[in-house]
């Protein structure tokens, strides 16, 4: 174990002890839980870094999915920071592929979960770097433009949208009005540590700007393909396909 890994292990022990103390207040506990989660992600990532000689996957996969969670796609190498991915990797640190080495990068409902601008812009540049010329980046996110366009929504419509997105979440009982729904699209911050917050909201125009800035030649709307994308994401999401 390296000195850094020893430090991280000691830190985790300290965080657990502080969290277990009755003196720890609600605000401090929230921050400590977030820190524990980051430490655990960091450990997954460090273990994968140690397994990769030269820091890149060899041979390079033809297609990769980023942040697929439980939605694995056949024929793709599935990269996520938590299981059941093929590679546990923190994409905020880059994409571990060689330059110009892959044909397709797919993600949906992932981009809004990494901080903007640093990590979102880094991701766009990394996707551009690893794609071969002509390669394609497909990206789907919750469509903030759609959600905002419905405001102010009548209570029945608000209830329908809330049910579609949050029926299975523990937070469901706290999402009561349309403005609560808008808050969630922009800042999804469940106290449940298994959820990643939303850090930034996107629409078609923002995706075009982000990927053009990263060097992609064209960014067009992508026609939803349920053989690849998660069918539950079809509603109220916006997808684009960017070509290098
Ligand atoms: C809301 S889920 C979406 C899962 C799937 N794409 C879908 O549409 O059902 C977001 C996913 O992004 C992953 N994720 C978040 N931050 C990440 C990071 N820094 N590196 C890799 N994956 C990350 C999470 O672990 C999670 O699986």
From TrEMBL:
Keyword Transferase appears in the UniProt entry: yes
Biological processes per GO annotation: methylation
Keyword Heme: no
Molecular function (Gene Ontology), one example: S-adenosylmethionine-dependent methyltransferase activity
Cross-referenced Pfam families: Methyltransf_11
InterPro entries with a match to the protein in the record: Methyltransf_11, SAM-dependent_MTases_sf
Annotated TM spans: none
The Methyltransferase type domain, residue ranges: 94-138
Alphabetized UniProt keyword annotations: Methyltransferase, Transferase
Protein known as: Methyltransferase domain-containing protein
Organism: Peterkaempfera bronchialis
